[in-house]
Design brief:
Layout: E1 7-10, E2 12-15, E3 18-25, H1 43-72, H2 74-77, H3 81-87, H4 90-101, H5 106-121, H6 127-148, E4 162-166, H7 171-179, E5 184-187, H8 195-203, E6 207-209, H9 214-217, E7 223-227, E8 232-235, H10 239-260, E9 276-281, H11 287-292, E10 297-302, H12 316-330, E11 334-338, H13 367-373, H14 375-388, E12 394-398, H15 404-423, E13 433-438, H16 441-445, H17 447-450, E14 456-459, H18 461-469, H19 487-502, E15 506-509, H20 520-526, E16 530-533, H21 538-546, H22 550-561, H23 566-577
Parallel strand pairs: 3-4, 4-5, 5-6, 9-10, 9-16, 10-11, 11-12, 12-13, 13-14, 14-15, 15-16
Antiparallel strand pairs: 1-8, 2-6, 3-7, 7-8
Helix pairs in contact: 1-3, 1-6, 3-6, 4-5, 5-6, 7-8, 12-14, 13-14, 14-15, 20-22, 22-23
Length: about 575
């Protein structure tokens, strides 16, 4: 029977790019998990079996760390430390021990414990942290494999130029795949924020995740098209579809070459209206990507990675050294450092507090709220930032400001830190600029008040949209309601920009909306001063800005503001994309 042609499997983009090739399916490990009653005289031996499996898993994870470190560097290798932290979780070991003492075999005790942990992750709404349950599952599988005495995946038959298909891939798998010079990978589970996706992006491997049925539908040797841009996989493409995607592939490379020619050209419209395009980065290793992309500054430096995969808080010196590396490499360009934007539940391990029982930690004690409640954490970071400011251009940006009182409290702490540095004869930039994220509707409404007491503001559209529309953007049941072009969202953005401009301060945008070419004309027409985007998006946004007339997009943006429904807005936007 001939194979069906052009079967489309839809997932999410884990790493961009379009490739065509033959599939290589990695078989999933199957474990026969059954309950066996352990006699009392064998309980200690069962615990020892579990301890030995833990230790063997630990050694394997150390090998993973070294392998990733050799290929990608220390920052990416630290991702694997999350698995070691899970392995060392005392509550997991205690739960397994308790079940064994009740007479349960180690395999089943571990399964019940891991299942309980991952069910707790299902209650967390944020997509990033939902991805972390995959890490827990992966560690559970590694320990089980060692309990069962199973061997690690074998890549001996993996051919070059293959597209790997699997239910899931670990960071180790991803690096091993790269060493085999494969073209890319697809997985049944995972998403944009999984550890594997992050490593794939660092390696430049096109990938699609969350396909659910890919590993069961696709067979080794099948011809597939992996569209990492659209988050799709096409199984058994026809000659016509292959030809079409080959044209896409060729056009993609032509566009990249054309975009590179724009790198050193001014960021201005056809009628000479100028704006700025900065880059968003997560750590110092990404600065070179930002500069090579043509970005003229860092508009959002996320500092949260400094708190991940460790059991102690970063010191002032660690903060300084990380920021120093960035500003020295950025040279004359500005670096905007966002102070810590994490929740209190992530700080329990540091011994500061435990708010793991918060019903909604993303609306709880986090970001600037956490810093104001525990100022020592805030002061340590501010001292590191200020010391680094003596060596380059730095701006400080507070996240999750919801009131003028919070802003003033944060600035009061900043002034105290400055005075302490002066008294200690430690140099810093006395004129360092301070700004705030506008990502909460309450802050958006009082931007005119906030703008009087800051040097700049930056719109965080990801949270602003979901808080304005009361939509969890990680919830697949309502994600269709998450709409950047909702009239309320667009009017709120315009209000923020106008309010800030009345106080003669600039407005940046560092959310995903800023990096989507579809919205560039509208934001430009609203008068946005600075687009802060992924390094990969810099030249795309620049190309659009250079092809537009500011006078025309301003008139069209004004028309959009008068629309009260999505259909009318989409109709006007379609005229922008045709220009």
């Amino acid at each position: 029977m001939p194979k069906s042609k052009n079967i489309i499997l839809k997932g999410v983009s884990a790493s961009v790019g379009i490739i065509v090739g033959r599939a290589f399916v990695l078989d999933e490990d199957d474990f026969c998990l059954i309950y066996r009653e352990i006699p009392k005289n064998r309980i200690e031996n069962e615990k020892k079996r579990f301890d030995n499996a833990i230790e063997k898993t630990r050694q394997e994870l150390k090998e993973v760390y070294n392998k990733v470190n050799n290929v990608l560097g220390e920052d990416y290798a630290h991702i694997t430390n999350a698995h070691i932290l899970i392995l060392d979780d005392p509550s997991m070991k205690k739960n397994v021990y308790n079940l064994i003492e009740y007479g349960t075999n180690a395999e089943y005790a571990l399964f019940k414990t891991i299942d309980k942990i991952i069910r707790s992750f299902d209650a967390i709404k944020d997509g990033y942290f939902k991805e972390r349950k995959l890490d827990v599952q992966e560690i559970g599988k590694k320990i089980l494999a060692n309990l069962f005495g199973k061997q690690k995946r074998n890549y001996a038959n993996l051919k070059e130029n293959s597209i790997v298909v699997a239910h899931n891939l670990t960071p180790t798998d991803t690096v091993a795949i790269r060493e085999k010079l494969v073209k890319g990978f697809v997985t049944d589970i995972g998403g944009k924020t999984s550890h594997t996706a992050i490593i794939a992006q660092g390696l430049g491997i096109p990938a699609v995740a969350g396909l659910k049925v890919a590993s069961s539908k696709i067979r080794t040797g099948d011809m597939i098209i992996l569209d990492g841009n659209a988050g799709e996989v096409i199984l058994n493409p026809s000659d016509e579809v292959l030809e079409k995607y080959q044209k896409y592939y060729d056009r993609q490379h032509e566009e990249i070459e054309e975009l590179r020619k724009l790198k050193d050209l001014p960021i201005e419209t056809l009628d000479k209206h100028t704006t700025s395009i900065f880059a968003n980065i997560d750590n110092s290793d990404e600065v070179s990507h930002a500069l090579n992309s043509g970005a003229k500054g860092i508009g959002l430096y996320r500092t949260e990675f400094m708190y991940f995969n460790r059991n102690t808080l970063p010191s002032e010196q660690e903060h300084f050294e990380e920021y120093y590396k960035v500003v020295r490499e950025m040279s004359e360009y500005t670096t905007t450092i966002r102070t810590i934007d994490l929740g209190g539940d992530k700080f329990a391990k540091f011994g500061l507090l435990n708010v793991s029982t918060e019903q909604n930690p993303f609306l709880g004690l986090r970001a600037i709220r956490l810093c104001l409640k525990y100022p020592d954490v805030f002061i340590t970071q501010l001292r590191g930032i200020l010391r680094a400011s003596a060596f380059g251009k730095i701006r400080i940006m507070y996240p999750m400001i919801s009131s003028i009182e919070e802003l003033r409290s944060a600035n009061k702490i900043l002034q105290d830190v400055k005075q302490d540095l002066r008294e200690s004869n430690i140099k810093f930039d006395e004129d360092i600029q301070v700004g705030t994220m506008i990502e909460i509707p309450s802050a958006a409404v009082i931007t005119d008040i906030i703008a009087k007491e800051v040097d700049f503001v930056s719109i965080g559209t990801n949270d602003l949209i979901q808080y304005t529309l009361a939509v969890d953007r990680g919830n697949e049941n309502v994600v269709n309601i998450y709409d950047p072009t909702h009239p309320a969202v667009l009017r709120l953005i315009k209000q923020i920009i106008d309010s800030a401009h009345k106080e003669n301060i600039e407005v940046a945008m560092c959310g995903e909306m800023a990096g989507d070419p579809l919205y560039t004309p509208i934001l430009l027409g609203f008068g946005l001063d600075e687009f802060s985007v992924s390094p990969f998006q810099v030249l795309k946004i620049k190309k659009i800005i250079r092809s537009m007339s500011f006078k025309e997009v301003k008139e069209i943006a004004d028309k959009i503001l008068q629309c009260g429904d999505k259909k009318s807005i989409s109709k006007i936007m379609s005229t922008l994309t045709r220009q």
